């Protein structure tokens, strides 16, 4: 359970002031709603600039994970056995130029997702769900293609209807993504929309300089009455980019000047002791479970031997890894890939026998497993002894982690060949179809509170983040069938059960080795109010931050 | 007149009063008098020896640069004891996060840092001296070509290029058979440092050669029928050691420092290998929670670089004592 | 020696200059005393390294290096230069006493026009004069030292001048304040003979015009013969002989002076007349031979165990023409030369 | 003189073209595929192909270079269909990562780098020459030793280490300055100064070192010049001699090197900008390296080269003004 | 070809390109360092060449020794044209003809011991022999009056005169028949100068060398030369038997040069009839038209500007390039040779 607390002294948040966000990033990955697909950035964009059809409640704790209407009047109507979803706009919303938000703007926004040659990096749900073929996006579409799209996503008055290829039980969760935000066609600048998207929320961009700052000011065309969710306490929000991680922590600890009005995006492991051992920070720090689960993918194709996978898992010094990340603050040892926060889908799974609960390696058991492997699959065992290729992002943190891997696996007679990959190019590199590896790290947060955004994504061949090559496993067919069944099950409780079983199915086969249910820590300035962690995104609800004078 | 051969027996008497010493010996004599410089030499020698025998020393002390010591860390992953857990077991404490022994990592790191420094210096010096001498001596077209190469090399923002090309070129190197990982990276660093570094050596050497070649002993050698290679290698080169030694001693620390910077940027050595750069880059984060760690690699580097600088200055003074003649002010 | 009624312009008394070096103490000037009287031209001759320049430099305290030790007295118009305040010495430099150095190529500041440099020397001792007036003075001076079209050349830089012309500029700098004493340290050695002749003539003309006293350092005896009244011969940091010019050329009292004269060829002599040589080379100033520093090269040396090898000769009057000599055997040498048996 | 300048400029342009060719081909032939990198986690072969077209890497390298060159003079079009747009001349390309024309990106970041460079340059010249002069005037005394040590320590510290150390100690331990946070001097001058003073100092101290050395040696050499002796013999004051005779000569080599160093800085003080979070060109270029943002990389490299080459020309011309001997009549 | 002639130069010209123009900075002017010089050196004789600084003496020496290629003209050594030899042949030429240099400091490699320096000719000629070479070097050292025990010493340990002896020993190493000495005593002290002059003279007699002796000071050449050539601005203005030239110079320049040398006799001070030349030597880049000396010549007339005087025999075995030479007394002309 997460200890999610609201920040600052009690009492209703006040209006006014400037909130600062300190970050080491050089820019917001994407401000273009259709390209925005990272937790923090979505929390930021949704709460300040990009209203969506549906959203999560603006609250901390479990309540924050509840779906609610935003632009729409309700959380959507589903018909046609889950294949048709309709949302009616509540009306009254306006863009920053004063023009009203219409159904056409929503449809246009969605259509942009399809222009993959410009609109990169965004989620692909629209493309996989919406029932249209060969649509190249609005920029290049011929009239026919556009007409086909308009049929799939059609507007009648202020009601937008999505016609889907497959039944999607929780499509209204999908629409919480900014990819379903409206974009006024007349103001679309394509490639450059990323730098200055048109706001539909309470704030708009005053200036944006990559590597320096993003300044949001109040959008005077925004009407509180039309927006049931947002409060927009602060007068302006300033994102400060490109700061050194240590410097951010230091500024937060020092809490001087404008930094009293600042929040940062996490605490470096080396400073956790300072912040969590000192009561001076009691009211402006939080330690919470964020949506992420970390794990290690095993390439089932190149390590087609359960004994070897077991040996690796048993030999792994998870305790050392956790310490390197800040001890218990790194997170809890995971027992699978579904976090307890996904209450409907989570059940404690039965872990590998011999795995120490305290995270220390069980060298004896690992050696035994290796011995067993030498008879059950001698070639794979030899491969493990020769060296398992493990690409990792070339960062200081990972430099230590890989050292721990190498050192702890060596004790069981397993060699790890670390391969440093430039951090920014890590994912494209390991996800390339021809990438060579035996082990690969993974970390996943569900897109919404349904393991349908976890198990199929991570372990089905169609999943966007399957690094396990598990189709080489003879059991894969069985798994696939079960996943397909679970996906279209409209009975949420029964579906949850199916996910639980599938989770156990993967844990048993060790297609991936569960790591931790990640915990995160945050600190905010002493004058910042309303600093709660927003569950679905695992970050502050930036738009709701307030300033206590 | 008596025969001319007899003329000068008095000369002989006088000349014997001068002690027979080669210029090199004289320089060495002067150098030896500089206590600080001798100490610096001792420091460098210690570094080299310690780096060479790192495995032996670690074995003797029972430490290892890779062994994890979770017991030396607290729950936050920070060293348990005061001063970064300096103890008998870990003479310089342990690395936060992993508990690896800092002394052992420092010793092994010295190998990388010194290797980069020495090899890069060797390469730059060799290339620079050869091209510089040839350009200065041959003049004409060869000089023009080398000078244009120099101009072109200098026109590039070298550090940016070094950074930008690290990954792709390491991959290229791996593709052509350099062992993956650190060997490839080391090769790259050394090569790229040499690629941009030779220019400075070549410029100095060319300038020196230009003035040397006007000296009559070069002409004398030619008038005896000496080949170009004889003149370059036997006549000119011995006279270039002085400036070259000075450049070497001043550029070597620069290379060590650049390696450190690349490592800091995550372009240096790959885990679990240690290099001072990796350690420096890592240690700066701990200035609050483990300041001891912060200072250890920093001091190690500064002492080395300082030693080289002192030696470089002293060598120059020893080789060129005329700098002492300050007549007026 | 001529009689001098007046006070000497320059009186050097027991001057010693030594430099501490890595290899030992260099006794560049080792107890030198002499007087220079108004209107005279005194030449100092001696081999390279015999301490001429160092001695000359001391007169204006130019050897202020941290490694130099200077003792003795140098009286310039009643002021002891060696103990005087820096400001007093600065007042003397360039106004009372001016210097010309050997190498005109490097003696001029390459970064300023020659006009500026001459004017600078004038203005520093005439702060009340305006730049414009100073320029007029400089032009006058340039005409005096024989620089053609000075209006044009005044604004040129030293590198645009030939060696002879540069030396003229240096002379202009030296003379612009009409100094009482001009110290010229080998002013013509770096020049060609034809130019050397021009410069010497110029200096002598100017001496007449300004009534200066000149202390001329040279190692060219021809030059001495042309201009000197009094001659000082230095060897290894000491004065070995001081005589008037006639005496030096006709009756040298020191074997070194004698050898120096004999070893120089003059084009009047005929071919294949073997030159007399002083064998060997000058001693190291760090470890001078015991006794007379010249004895290892001296044809008259009395051999081992003699005074020549054990006792430092002092400079003393010899003969009857006012010469002073620092040779134990001065009188004998004089006689032998007189009879012409000294030459081998 | 005019002909000389024209000739130098002509060579500069030739050199720049060579640099542009080298840079362009070097980066373009790298094995990394920017198209594959631009779509992150969700790369599918079709997306990569589409991206390649979007980024313009589908064209041949020669065509790309031609477009690049043409862009400099007439601007360049990007995008497709209704989403097309233009980067006006002089266009150095378009950054798909930063969604901006490279020229305007450089226009935004360059002032920061320029302020940083100019301030640091002034400071380091003052410190370097001042300390060097003190050393020269006190040769062999403790002041000299101290200055030499300063010079050695200065060059021996890697910028990132010294920078962070300075930042932590001055801002955190001694709390003398607030955390630097860049503001344009036109908006908030005091904030600008407080943000810049530390990076200025750090760069200054690191770079001043070699100037201390140069000044010291240059002055000592100058003091041995005959013309300085003549200056003393003229009766000039020490101050005048130092200024007009000694410094004037010692400064000439310094000007040469300072010009090039300054140009090097203008090309991006990469590490300093990163450590102090200054939104300058250096940090932008390192970001471009990380993102494989080739247009920005090529652009910044070119700009840096322009500065270096230009500085060379200016230094050459300045040389003529400083040293009348070099002046071409 | 006269077998009595050791070295002959025929109309030698050496121009050094200089200056710059155009975008590419190609040289557009040239220094006319040697401009049509013809010489003959008889076997066993000494030819003195005098002239002021920059008149082209060293350039001439370097062209003669083939250290640089002449722009035009011919060099003939012992009957063979060596103007364009190269490779092996050139190396043989180097054996026959050697050079002694002006500066005793810069002509010896400070990093080499005396043994190495004097042995260098053997090394570069490929005649180095572990046994024989050191013996020969010691012989040479003795020959020039150096202590053979100093074999392993370095140049900086020797005085100027001794260094010049080292240079001479090196020049003699390969037993050359012709030696060209480029101002070998100019940098030496008066007292040492005489030693070297005597040494050279003695060696020449003993080894039957043919010697070209270059100096800028007529009085030095006087003692050693049989014949004297006077150079002015790249050209020879007067050439002839030493006795004739010294006692009865025909060219005004020679006359001026002689009279400029200070006479070592205080009694003849301020003597009448002394010629003082005005001004400096003009630039060799664009020398005066006609007679090059006319700008400084007190006899110059319009003819001198228009027409270049040719080097012509005035009947006494001496050649002079002047439109208005001094008269040569016939008696003296006959006395020579
Ligand atoms: N600053 C110094 N430090 C050490 N030794 C010095 C210094 N200045 C001069 N000497 C030495 O003092 C001696 C006398 O030198 P000085 O320059 O006076 O000779 P000189 O007679 O002028 O010779 P020259 O004819 O070559 O000019 C020389 O041996 C010289 O090396
Ligand atoms: N390599 C060269 N390039 C250009 N000019 C040269 C070169 N060598 C000599 N000169 C010029 O040629 C002319 C003759 O020079 P040279 O050295 O032969 O004169 P010199 O008579 O030997 O003079 P000195 O007495 O000074 O040695 C001079 O003007 C000189 O500047
Ligand atoms: Mg002198
Ligand atoms: Mg010459």
UniProtKB/TrEMBL annotation, chain B:
Transmembrane intervals: 36-63, 114-137, 149-166, 186-205, 236-256, 262-281, 293-312
Gene Ontology biological process terms, A to Z: transmembrane transport
Compartment(s) of residence: Cell membrane
Membrane topology type: Multi-pass membrane protein
UniProt keyword list: Cell membrane, Membrane, Transmembrane, Transmembrane helix, Transport
Principal place of residence: membrane
Coiled coil, from the record: none
A Pfam family it matches: OppC_N
PROSITE patterns: ABC_TM1
Transmembrane helix among keywords: yes
Family matches, as SUPFAM superfamilies: MetI-like
Protein name: Unannotated protein
Species whose genome carries this gene: freshwater metagenome
From TrEMBL, chain C:
Pfam families: ABC_tran, oligo_HPY
InterPro entries linked: AAA+_ATPase (IPR003593), ABC_Ni/Peptide_Import (IPR050388), ABC_transporter-like_ATP-bd (IPR003439), ABC_transporter-like_CS (IPR017871), Oligopep_ABC_C (IPR013563), P-loop_NTPase (IPR027417)
Keywords: ATP-binding, Cell membrane, Membrane, Nucleotide-binding, Transport
SMART domains: AAA
Main location: membrane
Domain called ABC transporter: residue spans: 12-261
Keyword Transport: yes
GO biological process: peptide transport
A single MF term (Gene Ontology): ATP binding
Gene Ontology annotations for the cellular component aspect, listed alphabetically: plasma membrane
Record's subcellular location: Cell membrane
Bilayer topology term: Peripheral membrane protein
Name of this chain's protein: Unannotated protein
From TrEMBL, chain D:
Keyword terms of this UniProt record: Cell membrane, Membrane, Transmembrane, Transmembrane helix, Transport
Residue ranges constituting the ABC transmembrane type-1 domain according to the UniProt record: 110-319
Membrane topology: Multi-pass membrane protein
Any GO CC annotation of this UniProt entry: plasma membrane
Cellular localisation: Cell membrane
Transmembrane segments: 9-30, 114-137, 149-177, 189-211, 251-276, 296-322
The protein, known as: Unannotated protein
Organism: freshwater metagenome
From TrEMBL, chain E:
Stored Pfam families: ABC_tran (PF00005), oligo_HPY (PF08352)
Ranges that cross the membrane: none
PROSITE patterns in the cross-refs: ABC_TRANSPORTER_1, ABC_TRANSPORTER_2
Molecular function in Gene Ontology: ATP binding; ATP hydrolysis activity
Xref: InterPro entries: AAA+_ATPase, ABC_transp_ATP-bind, ABC_transporter-like_ATP-bd, ABC_transporter-like_CS, Oligopep_ABC_C, P-loop_NTPase
GO biological process: peptide transport; transmembrane transport
SMART domains in the record: AAA
Record's signal peptide: none
Domain ABC transporter: 7-258
Keywords, ordered alphabetically: ATP-binding, Nucleotide-binding, Transport
NCBIfam families, A to Z: oligo_HPY, PRK11308.1
Family membership: Belongs to the ABC transporter superfamily.
Protein name per Swiss-Prot or TrEMBL: Unannotated protein
């Amino acid at each position: 359970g997460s200890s999610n607390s609201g920040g600052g002294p009690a009492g209703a948040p006040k209006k006014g002031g400037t909130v600062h966000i300190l970050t080491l990033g050089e820019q917001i990955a994407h401000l273009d709603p259709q390209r925005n697909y990272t937790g923090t950035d979505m929390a930021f964009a949704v709460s300040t600039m990009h209203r969506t059809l549906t959203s999560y409640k603006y609250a901390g704790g479990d309540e924050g994970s509840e779906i609610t209407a935003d632009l729409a009047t309700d959380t959507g109507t589903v018909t046609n056995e889950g294949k048709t979803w309709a949302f009616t706009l509540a009306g009254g919303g306006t863009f920053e130029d004063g023009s009203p938000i219409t159904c056409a703007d929503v449809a246009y926004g969605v259509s942009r997702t399809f222009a993959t040659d410009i609109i990169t990096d965004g989620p692909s749900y629209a493309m996989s769900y919406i029932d249209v073929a060969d649509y190249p996006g609005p920029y290049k579409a011929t009239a026919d293609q556009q007409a086909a799209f308009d049929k799939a996503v059609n507007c009648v008055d202020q009601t937008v209807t999505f016609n889907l290829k497959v039944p999607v039980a929780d499509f209204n969760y999908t629409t919480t993504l900014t990819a379903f935000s409206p974009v006024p066609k007349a103001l679309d600048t394509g490639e450059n929309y990323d730098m200055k998207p048109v706001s539909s929320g309470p704030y708009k961009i005053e200036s944006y300089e990559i590597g320096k700052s993003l300044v949001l000011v109040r959008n005077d065309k925004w009407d509180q009455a039309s927006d049931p969710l947002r409060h927009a306490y602060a007068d302006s929000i300033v994102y400060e980019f490109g700061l050194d991680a240590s410097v951010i922590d230091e500024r937060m600890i020092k809490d001087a000047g404008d930094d009293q009005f600042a929040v940062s995006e996490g605490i470096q492991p080396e400073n956790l002791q300072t912040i969590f051992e000192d009561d001076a920070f009691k009211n402006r720090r939080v330690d919470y479970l964020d949506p992420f689960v970390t794990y290690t993918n095993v390439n089932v194709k190149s390590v087609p031997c359960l004994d070897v996978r077991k040996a690796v898992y048993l030999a792994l010094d998870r305790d050392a890894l956790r310490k390197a990340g800040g001890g218990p603050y790194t997170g809890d040892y995971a027992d699978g890939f579904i976090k307890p926060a996904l209450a409907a889908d989570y059940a404690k799974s039965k872990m590998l026998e011999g795995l120490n609960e305290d995270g220390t390696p069980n060298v004896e058991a690992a050696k035994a497993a290796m011995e067993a492997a030498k008879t059950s699959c001698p070639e794979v065992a030899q491969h493990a002894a020769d060296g398992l290729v493990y690409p990792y992002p070339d960062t200081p943190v990972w430099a230590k982690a890989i050292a721990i891997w190498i050192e702890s696996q060596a004790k069981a007679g397993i060699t790890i060949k670390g391969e440093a990959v430039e951090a920014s190019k890590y994912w494209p590199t390991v996800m390339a179809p021809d990438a060579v590896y035996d082990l690969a790290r993974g970390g996943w947060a569900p897109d919404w509170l349904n393991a349908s955004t976890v198990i199929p994504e991570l372990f089905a061949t169609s999943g966007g983040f399957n690094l396990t090559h598990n189709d080489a496993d003879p059991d894969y067919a069985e798994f696939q069938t079960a996943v397909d069944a679970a996906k279209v099950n409209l009975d949420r409780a029964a579906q949850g059960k199916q996910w639980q079983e599938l989770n156990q199915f993967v844990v048993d086969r060790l297609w991936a080795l569960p790591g931790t249910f990640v915990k995160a820590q945050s600190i905010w300035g002493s004058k910042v109010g309303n600093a709660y962690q927003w569950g679905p995104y695992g970050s502050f609800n930036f738009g709701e931050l307030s300033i206590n004078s | 007149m008596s025969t001319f051969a007899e003329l000068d027996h008095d000369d002989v008497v006088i000349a014997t009063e001068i002690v027979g010493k080669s210029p090199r010996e004289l320089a060495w004599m002067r150098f030896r008098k500089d206590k600080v410089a001798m100490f610096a030499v001792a420091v460098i020698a210690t570094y080299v020896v310690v780096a060479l025998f790192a495995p032996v020393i670690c074995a003797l002390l029972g430490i290892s640069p890779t062994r994890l010591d979770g017991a030396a860390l607290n729950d936050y992953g920070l060293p348990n004891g005061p001063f970064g857990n300096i103890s008998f077991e870990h003479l310089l404490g342990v690395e936060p996060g992993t508990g690896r022994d800092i002394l052992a990592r420092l010793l092994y790191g010295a190998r990388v840092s010194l290797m980069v420094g020495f090899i890069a210096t060797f390469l730059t010096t060799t290339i620079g001296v050869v091209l510089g001498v040839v350009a200065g001596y041959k003049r004409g077209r060869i000089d023009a070509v080398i000078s244009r190469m120099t101009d072109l090399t200098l026109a590039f923002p070298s550090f940016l290029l070094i950074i930008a090309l690290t990954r792709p070129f390491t991959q290229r190197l791996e593709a052509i058979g350099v062992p993956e990982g650190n060997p490839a990276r080391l090769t790259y660093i050394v090569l790229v440092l040499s690629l941009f570094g030779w220019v400075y050596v070549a410029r100095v050497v060319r300038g020196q050669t230009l003035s040397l070649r006007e000296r009559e002993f070069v002409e004398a050698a030619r008038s005896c029928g000496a080949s170009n290679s004889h003149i370059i290698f036997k006549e000119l080169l011995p006279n270039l050691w002085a400036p070259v030694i000075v450049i070497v001693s001043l550029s070597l620390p620069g290379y060590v420092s650049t390696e450190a910077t690349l490592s800091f940027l995550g372009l240096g050595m790959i885990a679990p290998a240690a290099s001072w750069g990796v350690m420096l880059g890592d240690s700066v984060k701990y200035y609050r929670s483990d300041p001891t760690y912060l200072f250890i690699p920093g001091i190690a580097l500064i002492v080395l670089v300082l030693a080289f600088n002192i030696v470089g200055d002293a060598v120059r003074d020893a080789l060129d004592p005329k700098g002492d003649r300050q007549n007026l002010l | 020696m001529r009689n001098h009624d007046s006070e000497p312009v320059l009186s050097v008394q027991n001057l010693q200059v030594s430099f501490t070096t890595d290899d030992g103490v260099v006794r560049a000037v080792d107890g030198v005393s002499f007087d220079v009287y108004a209107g005279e031209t005194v030449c100092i001759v001696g081999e390279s390294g015999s301490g001429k320049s160092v001695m000359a430099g001391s007169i204006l305290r130019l050897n202020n290096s941290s490694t130099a030790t200077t003792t003795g007295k140098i009286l310039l118009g009643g002021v002891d230069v060696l103990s005087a305040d820096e400001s007093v010495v600065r007042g003397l430099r360039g106004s009372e006493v001016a210097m010309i150095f050997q190498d005109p190529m490097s003696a001029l500041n390459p970064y300023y026009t020659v006009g500026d440099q001459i004017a600078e020397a004038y203005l520093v001792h005439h702060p009340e004069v305006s730049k414009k007036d100073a320029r007029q003075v400089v032009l006058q001076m340039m005409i005096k030292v024989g620089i053609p079209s000075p209006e044009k050349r005044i604004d040129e830089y030293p590198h645009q001048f030939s060696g002879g012309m540069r030396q003229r500029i240096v002379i202009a700098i030296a003379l612009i304040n009409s100094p009482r004493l001009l110290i010229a340290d080998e002013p013509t050695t770096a020049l060609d003979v034809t130019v050397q002749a021009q410069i010497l003539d110029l200096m002598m003309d100017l001496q007449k015009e300004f009534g200066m006293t000149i202390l001329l350092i040279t190692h060219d005896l021809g030059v001495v013969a042309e201009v000197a009244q009094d001659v000082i011969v230095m060897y290894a940091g000491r004065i070995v002989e001081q005589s008037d010019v006639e005496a030096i050329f006709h009756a040298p009292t020191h074997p070194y002076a004698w050898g120096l004269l004999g070893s120089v060829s003059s084009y009047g002599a005929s071919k294949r007349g073997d030159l007399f040589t002083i064998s060997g080379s000058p001693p190291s100033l760090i470890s001078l031979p015991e006794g007379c520093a010249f004895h290892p090269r001296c044809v008259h040396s009395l051999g081992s165990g003699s005074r020549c090898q054990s006792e430092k000769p002092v400079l003393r009057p010899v003969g009857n023409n006012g010469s002073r000599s620092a040779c134990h055997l001065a009188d004998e040498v004089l006689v032998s030369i007189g009879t012409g048996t000294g030459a081998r | 003189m005019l002909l000389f300048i024209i000739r130098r400029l002509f060579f500069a342009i030739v050199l720049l073209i060579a640099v542009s060719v080298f840079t362009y081909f070097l980066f373009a032939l790298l094995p990394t595929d920017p198209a594959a990198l631009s779509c992150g986690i969700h790369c599918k072969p079709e997306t990569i192909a589409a991206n390649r077209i979007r980024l313009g890497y589908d064209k041949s390298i020669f065509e790309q270079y031609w477009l690049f060159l043409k862009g400099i003079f007439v601007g360049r079009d990007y995008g497709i269909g209704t989403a097309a747009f233009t980067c006006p001349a002089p266009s150095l390309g378009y950054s798909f990562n930063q969604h901006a024309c490279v020229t305007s990106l450089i226009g935004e970041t360059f002032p920061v780098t320029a302020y940083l460079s100019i301030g640091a340059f002034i400071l380091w010249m003052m410190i370097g020459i001042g300390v060097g002069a003190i050393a020269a005037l006190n040769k062999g005394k403790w002041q000299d030793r101290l200055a030499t040590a300063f010079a050695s320590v200065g060059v021996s510290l890697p910028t990132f280490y010294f920078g962070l150390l300075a930042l932590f100690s001055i801002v955190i331990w001694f709390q003398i300055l607030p955390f630097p946070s860049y503001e344009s001097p036109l908006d908030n001058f005091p904030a600008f100064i407080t943000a810049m003073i530390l990076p200025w100092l750090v760069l200054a101290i690191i770079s001043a070192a070699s100037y201390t050395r140069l000044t010291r040696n240059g002055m000592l050499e100058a003091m041995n010049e005959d013309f300085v002796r003549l200056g003393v013999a003229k009766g000039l004051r020490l101050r005048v001699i130092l200024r007009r005779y000694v410094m004037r000569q010692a400064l000439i080599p310094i000007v040469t090197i300072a010009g090039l160093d300054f140009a090097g800085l203008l090309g991006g003080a990469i590490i300093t900008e990163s450590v102090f979070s200054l939104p300058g060109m250096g940090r932008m270029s390192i970001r471009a390296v990380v993102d494989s943002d080739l247009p920005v990389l090529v652009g910044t490299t070119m700009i840096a080269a322009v500065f270096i080459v230009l500085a060379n020309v200016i230094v050459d011309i300045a040389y003529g003004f400083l040293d009348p001997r070099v002046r071409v009549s | 070809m006269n077998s009595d002639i050791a070295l002959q130069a025929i109309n030698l010209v050496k121009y050094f390109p200089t200056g710059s123009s155009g975008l590419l900075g190609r040289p557009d002017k040239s220094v006319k360092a040697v401009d049509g010089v013809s010489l003959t050196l008889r076997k066993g004789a000494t030819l003195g060449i005098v002239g002021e600084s920059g008149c082209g003496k060293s350039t001439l020496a370097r062209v003669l020794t083939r250290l640089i290629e002449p722009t035009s003209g011919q060099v003939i050594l012992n009957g063979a044209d060596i103007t364009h030899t190269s490779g092996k042949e050139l190396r043989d030429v180097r054996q026959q003809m050697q050079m002694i240099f002006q500066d005793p400091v810069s002509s010896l490699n400070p990093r080499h011991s005396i043994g190495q320096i004097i042995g260098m000719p053997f090394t570069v000629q490929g005649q180095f022999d572990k046994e024989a070479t050191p013996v020969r070097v010691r012989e040479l050292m003795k020959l020039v009056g150096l202590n053979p025990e100093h074999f392993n010493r370095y140049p900086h340990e020797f005085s100027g005169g001794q260094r010049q002896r080292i240079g001479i020993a090196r020049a003699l190493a390969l037993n050359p028949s012709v030696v060209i000495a480029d101002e070998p005593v100019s940098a030496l002290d008066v007292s040492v100068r005489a030693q070297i002059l005597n040494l050279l003279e003695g060696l020449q007699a003993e080894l039957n060398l043919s010697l070209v002796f270059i100096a800028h000071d007529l009085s030095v050449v006087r003692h050693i030369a049989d014949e004297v050539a006077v150079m002015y601005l790249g050209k020879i203005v007067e050439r002839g038997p030493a006795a004739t030239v010294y006692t009865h110079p025909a060219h005004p320049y020679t006359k001026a040069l002689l009279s400029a040398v200070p006479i070592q006799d205080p009694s003849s001070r301020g003597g009448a009839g002394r010629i003082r030349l005005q001004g400096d030597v003009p630039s060799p880049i664009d020398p005066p038209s006609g007679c090059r000396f006319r700008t400084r010549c007190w006899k110059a007339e319009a003819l001198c500007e228009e027409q270049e005087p040719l080097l012509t025999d005035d009947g006494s075995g001496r050649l002079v390039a002047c439109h208005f030479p001094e008269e040569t007394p016939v008696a003296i002309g006959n006395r020579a040779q």
